[in-house]
Write a structure and sequence with these properties.
InterPro entries: AraC_XylS_family_regulators (IPR050204), Homeodomain-like_sf (IPR009057), HTH_AraC (IPR018060). This is HTH araC/xylS-type domain-containing protein. Pfam families: HTH_18. Keywords: DNA-binding, Transcription, Transcription regulation. The chain is an all-alpha fold and about 120 residues long. It has one domain: Arc Repressor Mutant, subunit A (Orthogonal Bundle). The protein has seven helices and no strands. The protein has helices at about 1-10, 20-25, 30-40, 45-60, 65-70, 75-90, 90-100. Helix 1 (about 1-10) packs antiparallel against helix 2 (about 20-25) and helix 4 crosses helix 5 (about 65-70). The longest helix is centred in the middle third of the chain and has 18 residues, at about 45-60.
């Protein structure tokens, strides 16, 4: 499990789930169950969060949303926008505006079952 996690981290979520599953000798389904048990998300879900984090870091560094989405491994900006909204309940711009305007401990950081700014924070 640790190797699979490091692989996802090292690629910022830009690896197919089959690769860490094959390297661990586990089936994809077994890896998914282990990840869900430990993180609450499947490897694909963890990879999506990592790609969203990467896109937010790129945007904060001055990239356009389209460039940030592409560099973070999304097929195109509309695909990124749909994934982002599905995970956070907001468009990327609305999410970022809410993070800028809100304190770090506002209720938006504690929405059960949704990826929120508590997960999508900048690494230090």
């Amino acid at each position: 499990m640790a190797w699979a996690w490091r692989t996802l981290q090292g690629t910022a979520g830009r690896v197919r789930v089959e690769e860490p599953a094959a390297r661990t000798g586990w089936s994809r389904r077994h890896l998914e169950r282990r990840f869900r048990c430990r993180t609450g998300l499947t490897p694909k879900g963890v990879a999506q969060v990592m790609r969203l984090q990467a896109a937010l870091r790129l945007k904060e560094a001055g990239a356009s949303w389209a460039d940030a989405a592409a560099q973070a491994g999304h097929h195109d900006q509309p695909h990124f926008d749909r994934t982002f909204k599905a995970m956070t309940g907001r468009t990327p711009s609305a999410f970022r505006a809410g993070r800028t305007a809100a304190s770090p401990h506002d209720a938006q950081d504690f929405v059960p079952g949704q990826v929120t700014s508590a997960v999508l924070t900048r690494r230090t």
